[in-house]
Design brief:
The protein is α/β, with parallel strands linked by helices and 297 residues long. The protein folds into two domains: 128 residues, Periplasmic binding protein-like II (D-Maltodextrin-Binding Protein, domain 2, 3-Layer(aba) Sandwich); 128 residues, Periplasmic binding protein-like II (D-Maltodextrin-Binding Protein, domain 2, 3-Layer(aba) Sandwich), CATH 3.40.190.10. Helix content is 34%, strand content 23%. A hairpin with a 5-residue loop joins strand 2 and strand 3. The longest helix has 21 residues. The chain is elongated. It comes from Coprococcus eutactus. Part of the ABC transporter complex PstSACB involved in phosphate import. It holds the Pfam family PBP_like_2.
Length: 297
């Protein structure tokens, strides 16, 4: 009897564990033959409002449209799962067979699959030649009165040395200013903003501090709008933005400098058989016009 109770307890415990895992939001339903079930709802994964990646994505795909009064309206479906960083988008899509999201191309890894857009692969080469349409700039944002150490760091980013780090991290170089020589100024720099720009900025900071050991640089990850606002109010010295500045922002005396170009990869789970969508199909998914995978036409 004791042995039977033990078996029942183990069986019940295993059942409870399976039930708890199924309740974590991981949609892994399969068709009757064990394959991808196209009748399942699409799990749309989006970035938060204020994200430069979201701003660029909705503009480039037509998810953002102008209303009758000429105001821009983001038509991302209200059913979308909202994530506050690139890393969370990646893990969410990787853990859900029926999810689709978008990330910086430089952050792409093998935990997910990037779709071709209009038959064109998301790659550095195709962004350079203009055939991959979902691309945007990585900007740093500054205003007048920048410190000597902050200017020295910017000079490094835009130099041949800094741009080599850009390309080594799978982003696209912009024209560089040649070899870098530091004046070794002393002081603190606060860099804040876009979570898409943050990974490559970490590498740039690490390399610059090896050259100028007098520099103390603090990096704060958030989103593009926060980085721009923080630069405007003096909370940070250099903002990071993965979108262009708005007219209302440049009117505040802010200046954007492109440090790299990046593509936006539309990603799905590795178990999803989809390989290639048009921009219109992506738009239909993210506006909710196509609610199930079988609706993507």
């Amino acid at each position: 009897m004791i042995r039977l109770k033990n078996v029942l307890a183990v069986t019940l415990g295993a059942a409870l564990m399976v039930g708890s895992l199924a309740g974590c939001g991981n949609n892994s339903s399969k068709s009757a033959d064990g394959g991808f079930d196209a009748t399942q709802d699409i799990s749309v994964v989006s970035r938060e409002e204020g994200s430069g990646t979201r701003g660029a994505f909705v503009e480039l795909t037509g998810v953002e449209e102008k209303d009758a009064d000429g105001n821009k309206v983001d038509n991302t479906t209200t059913n979308a799962i909202t994530c506050n960083s690139t890393e969370v988008v990646l893990t969410t899509v990787a853990g859900d067979d029926y999810a689709i999201g978008y990330i910086s191309l430089g952050a792409l890894n093998d935990t997910v699959k990037a779709l071709k857009i209009g038959g064109v692969e998301a790659s550095e080469e195709n962004i350079n030649n203009g055939s991959y349409t979902l691309s945007r700039p990585f900007n740093i944002v500054t205003k007048d009165g920048i410190s000597d150490v902050a200017q020295d760091f910017i000079n490094y980013i835009m130099s041949e040395d800094g741009q080599k780090i850009i390309s080594a991290n799978k982003y696209i170089e912009v024209a560089n200013s040649g070899a870098f020589t530091s004046t070794n100024p002393k002081g603190k720099i606060v860099v804040a903003g876009s979570s898409s720009v943050t990974p490559v900025m970490e590498k740039l900071i690490e390399a610059y501090k090896a050259i100028n050991t007098n520099a103390d640089i603090e990096l704060q990850e958030s989103d593009s709008t926060t980085g721009i606002t923080s630069t405007s109010d003096g909370t940070c010295d250099i903002g990071m933005a993965s979108r262009e500045l708005k007219d209302t922002e440049t009117a505040l005396g802010l200046k954007a400098t492109v440090i790299a170009m990046d593509g936006i990869a539309v990603i799905v789970n590795n178990n999803n058989p989809a390989e290639d969508y048009t921009v219109d199909q992506v738009k239909d998914i993210f506006t909710g016009s196509a609610a199930k995978w079988e609706d993507v036409k």
